């Protein structure tokens, strides 16, 4: 893998889309969820989440709207678009295939 | 991105562009909200608020850099910066408006002149006929090394010289040949004919008489062209028959003008030269027939034309194979080539030719050619090709000068901005960003110049079209500005702006960061000042070429305007009458002419009056061949130009009679036929011996048409001002035809007045209407105006080249001003030191002059050989003037020297007024 940052970026995108597939969330909630699900494996600083969100929005995979949040201030909530849902399905399938193939190779070497 | 992506992305991007501050505020709010929520979460997990805020901040990292990344994600950053650059560039232009003005004006003139001239050149030389598939059309022509007198008695239409075939070329054929082509050509899908003469007719509409240009065509003409009528129908094959009711097709313009765009025009009556006819329909607006610039008002079937011809000139039959009067155009069949068609048609043509004995048997048979006709008859092309190409070359030079000017100014500015660029670089501005900004600045200038150029082009093209429309033949051009040339010229000027604005800046940005201090400014300045001076010298050199060209054209115009045409052109009014069109003929017609002469002569203010078939200059020409028994070698025929005149002609025109008598009232139809010849005729054909009493013989051997020479008149230029008087013979209008009672059906009158010729104009009309109210005087004009019209090409050329020369001079002066000002400014310190050390003001002045003189003299030295070479191309346009005329060269050099002096006046004064104390503190 010559460009790990791309891999991380792609993975981050996939994770964000997956998280948003369940419900609309604001940026902070997404970052909490990310920590929760990926634990120590994916080191995502709070700050780098936002450029990723803005990029996804520009690509049309998610959309945003301002809504009241937990602390009674308004916050920007992100939700999946139809385009994003399709993208997620496609990407998940690709990911499954790729990880299955890699697992197979790794197991082959062990044998 | 796919379409669906754009569906989401486009509103977002537009929002980030147009509501920029709002988007920024939201970004800020979003990130702040995150920090607050995170801090709150930390507080809930047991931290104190202060700690929690810091922890949240740490987890986030640098807010500003994340903001920047978010902005990047919006994808409009480039555009935002671009808008900023454009604003910055415009601000810069406002700060330095004189530089911007000079650059934009230079570009506007270069771009505008090139676009206008090329657009006219395109309309005249390159544009194809607006008909179906014009590339398949061919025009039949013939050429012969000598006039084919054995095969032809009369040629109607035109003959001309071409580069392809020696001798004479023409597209007039006998109608017999046309019918053979029509019947036997297998390579052509259609063969159509048209009258090679364009004729003016009297048209009667609702009782009003109008003058109209008519084109007679064969029945299949419009079908072969593949044009559709705008209204009604066009001429059909069935219309071209003696038994068919006469119809005409009117041009779109004529329909608008004379019928008030009446949609129900089809079927309306119209009278053509007294023959009642019906309007069949209206031709499409862009259709002008075959001849660009000379659009007919009416199209008639050939059958109608032939019938009228026979009525007006009964002695000449259009079905005679020795009368050549028809143009022939064909459309190649699919798959057939021009060569195949030529081989077949040449065989058909030569099989129809028979030489008549006793008529110059030595003349070789004419050869048929099949030429491409996608551009029509190419009269305009032949007349204006060299002129337009020369003008194109001149505006090309002008563009080069404009580019050099722009380059010089931008070069100066780039050098002046060295300090600014170095500062910005050392403050951390990315180099690529600076380069982009400089590029935007050049582009902004070019776009402004291009826009102004478009305006100049529109205006200049309209002026050019006006020049053509004012010519004697009223050449009507449909000129559209050419987008390709506009783009090309804008590209050239942008390229030169970028090259000279950017290249030095680039060089600077590479090294500038290291050299912020004032210490080593010299090297860059020396280089910049060398290329700046070279550019000014280039402008001076090219400007000299244009100035010499314009001087030569002005000299030519002046000489042509004042050349002795053989008669005094002042106080001379000319007009035409065509009583023949109203049914006058024979003795009645002669009586009309004589009576009109008497009535005009009786008008107070009129000195004398006479008439002739052709006006003195600018009314066309008529020529023939004759023998002089006992003088010319037997069997050879001599060319001569013919004038058919009334009694008193020489007196009224003011032509001196050198010997014998003039043509008088006694030379009637029944008297012995006489002729007066001009001095050139005597010199060329009698070799100085006495011609009086000799016989001039024309006509067939069995029925000779003889006239006795009774007088010698002074030389008068014939039709053209430019050409020396040809051998000319004058006949009495009563004796002009072998048929004794034949009188030409129209005449050109000459009225010599005592005062202003225009003052008798009203009385003239009254005299004519009192004689016959239905015969109008047409084309009343002064002979001076006629000559001006004949000289339209020279006048247009002189005006245009003078304009180009003046522009070049101004641009070169501006360039010089800029360069010398810059040099003086850069050397303020040095000059200050010199003055402090005791240099006088005169010494400083002479230093500035030396700087200037060097540049200007190098430019002139380079320009003289260039001008010498370039003006050879003008040779065919000059009149009694050598391309290397020393007076013109001297005047051009003087103009450049004077302009240079004027240009350096301000900087030179500034240099002498430098205060050494201020100057030494200057840096």
Give a written overview of the molecule.
- The complex is a heterodimer of chains A (111) and B (923).
- By secondary structure, chain A is α+β, with helices and mostly antiparallel strands.
- Chain A has a single domain, classed as Arc Repressor Mutant, subunit A (Orthogonal Bundle).
- Chain A has helices spanning 4-22, 27-38, 46-59, 82-110, and strands at 25-26, 62-68, 74-80.
- In chain A, a hairpin with a 5-residue loop joins strand 2 (62-68) and strand 3 (74-80).
- The radius of gyration of chain A is 16 Å and the shape is elongated.
- Chain B has five domains: 3-75, no CATH class; 78-127 and 382-517, no CATH class; 134-374, no CATH class; 522-565 and 784-923, no CATH class; 579-774, no CATH class.
- Helices cover 51% and strands 16% of the residues of chain B.
- Chain B is built from 26 helices and 26 strands.
- Chain B is elongated, with a radius of gyration of 38 Å.
- The chains are: A alpha+beta (111), B alpha+beta (923).
- Chain A binds chain B through residues 26-28, 31-32, 45-48, 50-51, 54-55, 57-60, 63, 66, 69-71, 73-76, 81, 83, and chain B through 1, 4-9, 12-13, 26, 29-31, 33-34, 36-38, 40-41, 56, 59-63, 65-66, 69-70, 72-75.
Provide a compact summary of the structure:
The complex is a heterodimer of chains A (111) and B (923). Chain A has helices at 4-22, 27-38, 46-59, 82-110, and strands at 25-26, 62-68, 74-80.
List its traits:
heterodimer, A: 111 residues, Arc Repressor Mutant, subunit A, 3 strands, elongated, disordered N terminus, B: 923 residues, alpha+beta, 5 domains, 8-stranded mixed sheet, 7-stranded mixed sheet, 26 strands
What is the CATH class designation of chain A?
Answer: Mainly Alpha
Distance between the termini of chain A: 24 Å
Radius of gyration of chain A: 16 Å
**Secondary structural class of chain B:** alpha+beta
Low-confidence stretches of chain B: 512-525
Beta-strand segment tally of chain B: 26
Helix content of chain A: 55-70%
**Bulk shape of chain B:** elongated
Q: What would you call the structural class of chain A?
A: alpha+beta
Kindly state the mean pLDDT of chain A as a whole number?
80
Give the strand content of chain A: 5-15%
Mean pLDDT of chain B: 84
CATH superfamily of chain A: Winged helix-like DNA-binding domain superfamily/Winged helix DNA-binding domain
**How would a crystallographer describe the biggest sheet of chain B?**
8 strands, mixed
CATH architecture of chain A: Orthogonal Bundle
């Amino acid at each position: 893998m010559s460009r790990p940052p791309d891999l991380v970026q792609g993975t981050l995108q996939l994770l964000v889309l997956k998280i948003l597939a369940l419900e609309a969330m604001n940026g902070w909630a997404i970052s909490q969820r990310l920590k929760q699900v990926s634990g120590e494996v994916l080191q995502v600083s709070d700050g780098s989440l936002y450029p990723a969100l803005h990029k996804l929005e520009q690509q049309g995979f998610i959309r945003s709207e301002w809504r009241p949040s937990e602390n009674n201030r308004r916050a920007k909530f992100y939700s999946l678009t139809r385009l994003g849902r399709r993208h997620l399905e496609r990407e998940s399938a690709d990911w499954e295939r790729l990880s299955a193939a890699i697992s197979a190779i790794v197991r082959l070497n062990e044998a | 991105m796919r379409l669906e992506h754009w569906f989401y992305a486009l509103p977002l991007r537009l929002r980030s562009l147009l509501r920029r501050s709002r988007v920024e505020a939201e970004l800020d709010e979003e990130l702040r909200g995150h920090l607050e929520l995170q801090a709150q979460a930390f507080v809930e997990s047991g931290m104190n608020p202060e700690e929690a805020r810091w922890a949240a901040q740490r987890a986030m990292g640098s807010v500003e850099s994340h903001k920047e990344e978010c902005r990047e994600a919006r994808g409009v950053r480039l555009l935002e910066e671009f808008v900023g650059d454009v604003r910055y560039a415009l601000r810069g232009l406002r700060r330095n408006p004189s530089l911007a003005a000079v650059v934009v004006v230079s570009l506007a003139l270069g771009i505008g002149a090139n676009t206008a001239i090329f657009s006219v050149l395109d309309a005249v030389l390159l544009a194809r006929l607006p008909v179906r598939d014009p590339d398949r059309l061919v025009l039949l022509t013939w050429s012969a090394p000598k006039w084919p007198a054995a095969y032809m008695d009369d040629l109607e239409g035109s003959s001309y010289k071409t580069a392809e075939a020696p001798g004479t070329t023409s597209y007039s054929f006998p109608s017999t040949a046309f019918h053979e082509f029509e019947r036997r050509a297998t390579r052509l899908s259609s063969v159509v004919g048209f009258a090679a003469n364009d004729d003016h007719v009297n048209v009667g509409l609702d009782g009003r008489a109008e003058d109209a240009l008519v084109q007679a065509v064969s029945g299949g003409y419009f079908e072969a062209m593949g044009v559709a009528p705008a209204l009604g129908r066009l001429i059909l094959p069935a219309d071209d028959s003696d038994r068919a009711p006469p119809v005409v097709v009117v041009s779109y313009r004529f329909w608008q003008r004379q019928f008030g765009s009446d949609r129900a025009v089809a079927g309306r009556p119209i009278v053509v030269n007294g023959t009642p006819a019906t309007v069949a329909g209206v031709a499409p607006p862009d259709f002008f027939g075959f001849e660009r610039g000379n659009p007919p008002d009416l199209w008639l079937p050939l059958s109608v034309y032939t019938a009228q011809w026979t009525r007006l000139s009964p002695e000449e039959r259009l079905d005679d194979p020795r009368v050549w009067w028809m143009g022939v155009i064909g459309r190649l069949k699919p798959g057939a080539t021009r060569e195949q068609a030529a081989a077949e048609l040449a065989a058909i043509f030569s099989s129809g030719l028979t030489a008549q004995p006793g008529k110059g048997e030595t003349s070789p048979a004419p050869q048929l050619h099949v030429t491409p006709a996608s551009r029509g008859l190419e009269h305009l092309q032949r007349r204006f090709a060299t002129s337009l190409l020369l003008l194109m070359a001149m505006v090309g030079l002008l563009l080069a000068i404009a580019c050099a000017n722009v380059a010089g100014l931008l070069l100066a500015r780039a050098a002046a901005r060295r300090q600014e660029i170095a500062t910005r670089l050392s403050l951390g501005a990315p180099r690529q960003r600076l380069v982009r900004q400089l590029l935007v600045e050049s582009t902004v200038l070019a776009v402004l110049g291009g826009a102004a150029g478009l305006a100049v082009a529109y205006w200049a093209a309209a002026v050019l079209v006006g020049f053509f429309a004012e010519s004697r033949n009223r050449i009507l051009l449909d000129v559209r500005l050419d987008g390709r040339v506009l783009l090309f010229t804008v590209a050239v000027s942008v390229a030169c702006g970028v090259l000279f604005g950017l290249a030095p800046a680039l060089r600077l940005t590479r090294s500038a960061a290291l050299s912020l201090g004032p210490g080593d400014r010299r090297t860059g300045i020396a280089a910049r000042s060398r290329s700046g001076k070279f550019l000014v010298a280039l402008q001076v050199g090219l400007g000299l070429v244009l100035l010499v060209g314009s001087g030569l054209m002005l000299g030519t115009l002046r000489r042509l305007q004042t050349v002795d045409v053989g008669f005094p052109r002042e106080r001379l009014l000319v007009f035409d009458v065509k009583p023949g069109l109203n049914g006058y003929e024979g003795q009645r017609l002669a009586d009309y002419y004589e009576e009109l002469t008497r009535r005009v002569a009786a008008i107070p203010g009129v000195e004398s009056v006479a008439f002739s078939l052709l006006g003195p200059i600018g009314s066309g020409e008529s020529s023939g061949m004759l023998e002089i028994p006992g003088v010319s070698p037997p069997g050879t025929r001599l060319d001569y130009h013919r004038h058919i005149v009334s009694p008193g002609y020489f007196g009224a025109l003011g032509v001196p009679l050198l010997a014998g008598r003039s043509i008088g009232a006694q030379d009637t139809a029944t008297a012995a036929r006489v002729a007066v010849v001009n001095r050139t005729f005597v010199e060329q054909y009698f070799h100085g011996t006495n011609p009086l009493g000799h016989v001039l013989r024309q006509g067939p051997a069995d029925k000779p048409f003889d006239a006795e020479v009774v007088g010698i008149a002074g030389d008068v230029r014939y039709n053209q001002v430019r050409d020396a008087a040809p051998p000319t013979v004058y006949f009495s209008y009563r004796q002009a035809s072998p048929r004794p009672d034949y009188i030409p059906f129209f005449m050109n009158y000459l009225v010599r007045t005592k005062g202003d010729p225009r003052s008798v104009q009203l009385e003239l009309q009254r005299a004519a209407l009192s004689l016959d109210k239905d015969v109008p005087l047409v084309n009343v004009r002064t002979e001076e105006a006629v000559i001006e019209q004949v000289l339209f090409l020279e006048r247009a050329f002189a005006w245009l080249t003078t304009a180009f020369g003046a522009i070049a001079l101004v641009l070169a002066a501006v360039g010089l001003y800029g360069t010398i000002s810059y040099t003086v400014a850069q050397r303020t310190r040095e000059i200050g030191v010199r003055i402090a050390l005791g240099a006088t003001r005169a010494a400083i002045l002479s230093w500035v002059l030396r700087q200037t003189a060097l540049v200007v003299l190098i430019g002139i030295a380079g320009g003289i050989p260039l001008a010498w070479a370039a003006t050879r191309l003008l040779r065919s346009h000059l009149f009694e003037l050598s391309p290397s005329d020393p007076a013109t060269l001297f005047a051009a050099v003087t103009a450049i020297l004077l302009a240079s002096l004027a240009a350096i006046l301000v900087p030179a004064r500034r240099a002498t007024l430098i205060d050494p104390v201020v100057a030494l503190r200057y840096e």
